[in-house]
What we know:
This protein folds into two domains: 122 residues, no CATH class; 156 residues, no CATH class. It is of the alpha+beta class. The chain has ten helices and ten strands. It is globular, with a radius of gyration of 22 Å.
Amino acid sequence: MDSVTQVLLGASIGVAxxxxxxxxxxxxxxxxxxxxxxxxxxxxxxxDPILNMIRHRAESHALLLLTLFAFPMAWxxxxxxxxxxxxxxxxxxxxxxxxxxxxxxxxxxxxxxVFQPFSNEAYGLGSMFIVDPVYSLPxxxxxxxxxxxxxxxxxxxxxxxxxxxxTAYLAWSALAxxxxxxxxxxxxxxxxxxxxxxxxxxxxxxxxxxxxxxxxGERFHEGFYALLDGGRSIRFVAHERGGALATQxxxxxxxQRLARFTDGFFKVQRSRESLVVTDLRMGQEPDYVFSFDxxxxxxxxxxxxxxxxxxxxxxxxxxxxxxxxxxxxxxxPPPERR
Length: 338
């Protein structure tokens, strides 16, 4: 999720766990700091944009390492505020604020390496978009109440209800994703299309519209389903995936990295003399966040050049207009296809 939401989640958890034991601004402050810390790995430059992408949400998002880091952090915070007797409580508050950061990230499709240093496998359920106001705004209300409402009992109650609502919304997103996945498989099978390799993720900003991608060798099929579509079959559009080109360059280390990190949801294209590899999970055809120029096909023994990132984004106004219509169940194509 976005860093602002992570700060709000950490602050809300800090307030809920510390309760009346300390000033609410202290628990909100340090909970927010703990919620932000794992994302500071974006400041690290690994010398290549593909490595920067893959190494984000790695060790700094490991559940074990964050749990251990909570010990010295709690010691420092409890001593700073002269509350050594609250060390154990501060540990619980900060540990939960730290570990819920990668757990929330697991709900997105990006990929989070929660089992570092034992495994570098990246996991992502993909039931939440990286920014979702329905999840974030209740957390904001709870934190604001903790800082502004003068009656501590009322402030804690508002924060607790806000945290419970946001958590329930996460469960709803997973349930909605499951339902859309079942409908997508039925739609694909009815149209004679493969449904084994299937990606179902929410469209931006809500869980009311979903994007579906199905891999089919040289092609991938993309479609959208809104919960207000009323069970209407998903209309899929086929796009070239560059499977043969990927096979010809299967030994390219940059291509191997992206193929593994995306679980196969990528496409390869030629741009003049270069190969361009695109992560199909984040964006929609033809606009994607993560596309990389990895240079020309490699010769035997040749060192791959540093990749360069290419991002193409949909016009915001047109995109929001389309999203609004699809949310209402109107079967209109995305802006780039009109």
